[in-house]
Design a protein that fits this description.
Layout: H1 12-24, H2 30-47, H3 58-63, H4 66-77, H5 81-95, H6 100-115, H7 120-123, H8 126-135, E1 139-142, E2 148-151, E3 155-162, E4 165-172, H9 179-191
Antiparallel strand pairs: 1-2, 2-3, 3-4
């Protein structure tokens, strides 16, 4: 990366990421907003690509990293990959003349992201499902039959991927001292 001209006027986090996230904040859950923002902030700290005291060309290293791949997996699992695409578009545009190497990496990553936007059925597997659930904070495992098992404090989930379709069974445990309250719980389950 040394010897490459990279002197952008816009900082990736402060001028691109924050701008895009503020534009989309009302269209995504706050937990997704915070997770994307936090992952990118951790990447800035790890890869030192800040315009202020870092090396902006290191953004290229980040875009080629497993950390960035994990961000894409998380974004896909939450339906937020369009936000990453928007960030990459803005990065490529902002760095096109001032840091061409990073702009090219952003365009490559955007092209890869868009080419993988084929139907979910084509990509989904037990491993992808398990990883997506783990990224959401669930305790997840895959048994020897390829069934994804999630255990929570008062529920269990078993899910398997068959021909690109997720088949699942959720069991919820609880205690009630009234039959009518049980009927209410059953009706709520039927609504799901």
């Amino acid at each position: 990366m040394t010897g490459r001209s990279c002197s952008p006027s816009k900082d990736f986090m402060r001028h691109i990421v924050n701008h895009v996230l503020s534009e989309v904040a009302d269209r995504i859950p706050i937990s997704v907003f915070n997770e994307i923002r936090n992952r990118l902030a951790r990447a800035e700290e790890k890869y030192k690509f800040s315009l202020f005291g870092g090396s902006p060309e290191k953004l290229g290293e980040y875009l080629d990293s497993e950390d960035f791949d994990n961000l894409i997996v998380y974004a896909r699992s939450t339906g937020a990959e369009w936000i990453i695409a928007k960030i990459l578009e803005e990065l490529a545009k902002a760095y096109k003349d001032s840091c061409q190497f990073v702009a090219e990496k952003a365009s490559e990553a955007l092209g890869k992201l868009k080419s993988e936007e084929s139907p979910e059925k084509a990509r989904i597997s037990s491993e992808v499902l398990a990883r997506s659930l783990k990224l959401r904070g669930y305790k997840t495992s895959i048994n020897d039959k390829g069934v994804v098992v999630v255990s929570g404090p008062n529920f269990t989930l078993e899910a398997e991927v068959v021909d690109g379709v997720i088949r699942y069974k959720i069991c919820k445990e609880g205690k009630i001292n009234n039959i009518n309250k049980l009927f209410i719980k059953i009706e709520k389950l039927r609504e799901i």
